[in-house]
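=== Structure Prediction Worksheet ===
Name of assembly: unnamed complex
Input type: mixed (protein and possibly other molecules)
Chain count: two
Listed entries:
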Amino acid sequence: MITFSVFKKSKKSNARIGVIKTPHGEVETPAFVGVATQATIKTLTSAEALQTGLQALIANTYHLHIRPGEDTVKKNGGLHTFMQWDRPLMTDSGGFQVFSLGFGKDYGTGKILKKRSDAVIQKGAQPQKVKITEDGVEFRSYVDGSKLFLGPKESMRIQEKLGADIILAFDECTSPLADYEYNKHAMEKTHRWADMCIKAKQSKQALYGIVQGGKHKDLRQESAHFMASREFQGYGIGGEFGDNKSIMQKMLRWTLAELQENKPRHLLGIGHLSDIELVIKEGVDTFDCIAPTHYARHGYAFISKGQGTRKKEKAAEFEKLDLNNKKYKNDLGSLDKNCECFVCNTYTRSYLHHLIRAYEITPLRLLTFHNLHFFNEYVDNIKNRIKKGDV
Amino acid sequence: MITFSVFKKSKKSNARIGVIKTPHGEVETPAFVGVATQATIKTLTSAEALQTGLQALIANTYHLHIRPGEDTVKKNGGLHTFMQWDRPLMTDSGGFQVFSLGFGKDYGTGKILKKRSDAVIQKGAQPQKVKITEDGVEFRSYVDGSKLFLGPKESMRIQEKLGADIILAFDECTSPLADYEYNKHAMEKTHRWADMCIKAKQSKQALYGIVQGGKHKDLRQESAHFMASREFQGYGIGGEFGDNKSIMQKMLRWTLAELQENKPRHLLGIGHLSDIELVIKEGVDTFDCIAPTHYARHGYAFISKGQGTRKKEKAAEFEKLDLNNKKYKNDLGSLDKNCECFVCNTYTRSYLHHLIRAYEITPLRLLTFHNLHFFNEYVDNIKNRIKKGDV
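=== Predicted Assembly ===
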């Protein structure tokens, strides 16, 4: 089980300072949650993940079910022991993969999606590679092609074996191309599945209900209202959030207003630096995003803007450094003058640039470490400003 | 400059215990030297390289000349500062690349070579991609296709800018397919180049002369005799060593007998576990090999044989574990019960197997760390047995 306490609410926004207590320690919120899909933060060890300032990680039920399988994880003593992370841990339910491996495969996700946005997914439509039924979702394993079925009961059973502190109800995450009727139908199914998850769960793990409803105000409100009426220990907010930050802000406002204030809210898969202050101001407590780790593996570092002039207590500003760029060949400065992580304390940009151009593996780790450290400092900065009454 | 002292000579073999003192600390010999071609041990940081027990690293003149260039390294304060390795450091001369990018490209190296061993490289022959002249070697950069020329003077100038403690004379490393006349001619050129290196060197770095001569006893003896007659601070033994360990042993015996006893001998590119005791027994002080790092990146771990029964003081035995293999899926044991590295102290084989099967980057680091630790322990074990008079 977990407990959640809110210590301070902002007077300027819906931001709040709190703490989630879990059997594996505390998460001071707001907090960035590190993405450990395959039971590791890509390129790092769990000990290093901790050193970056991460307080909690989120692993993936779908991927760990396929490989190595929840039984193997359980034999290892559960996910905490398996990956040697003795801190708060979440698992998502597999609901996102209903989208990413379903309509996401057919129409693309993110930027690719926009190119094909003339498609409309109507009620009753089925993606090519997965089959969504009233009971759950039929997948094929990408490892051996075998048939897999994931529904609320299966997701609970798997997540119980994985043994994270916080588990998520199984939901259908819809595509941005789905129309109103599709979203309404999927949401209603997600609500039925939420009740089935509550009923199926036998462990003492904390269970979060997932709010869906696409970009539709009435559906989001209905979904949040539904989740708030059930015995969940917290809430996940899933699905899409419209085409721009202003729409995302409104949607979060509609949604979070319906949820119980004394329970933590996790925003699923959102957390680019440009989103973080906005979502915290709307009252989101935790959120996860692959941006810091993904960009690191492509040679990008997030650093504070206007190196040397930025004041830490002011609104945090950032820029993205492309270390592939030749202009860093002889740059003897550290990645970020304002950063005190070991990477910035140890190496020149010149060395990091060299390693990236030489296709070495070492710099992928170094940038991952720095970026996560930067994200966590970035959130800490906002937290401090909430404490001071500035946010 | 360096100094070298021999503390103990074995009565059972030509093995010896010594210490090389450099401006960046000491190397207790015999010692495995870590390969840091591009100014990093692949996947690791220099701090971790030190934790594995490595005492010295060897970086590559040819590769660092091409990218990032010795001027960039010098601007960073030299190779030690660039890569944050404050310990003994060697650079090889680029002579190996005369082979690996020359006849090595045309006829293959290692196992591939054997398939085409009907070819004979005769005196006067030229490889397709590099041109070997009396003054040096013309290459093309693999980065931008530009022409490069590397000869004894150029190699010295580059190695001086890189600033390693020990630098190597520029030589021609011959292909195993080269005939006697080719080897004789190349060796004589290598000798002329050795004198040119001594003359060209302006720094206080220690310079090693490289013994060549292919698999021919008279050439090896002549080459060793030549190098011993010159003012070198130590010796590298390069080129090929025949088709089996018995021939390698004989060749080392012929060669090392001609060298000055009070100077360190580095065996270039040899150091599989099965070679190590043999070469140490012949009087080799240091040696480098990519085996521990290369195999790690392919999912292999070197571990002590007969887990749990091996006695550390007995002749070290080992086996190679293929962690890609499904049989480790539920293996809750550590990589090596007899190993005290952090990887063996932290993770199960089951977890490492999972990460490898999931194509994660993290396990490549973990296996690299363990393998280097294992190699260093392996050498330490032999060192202790020499001290006890058992080797």
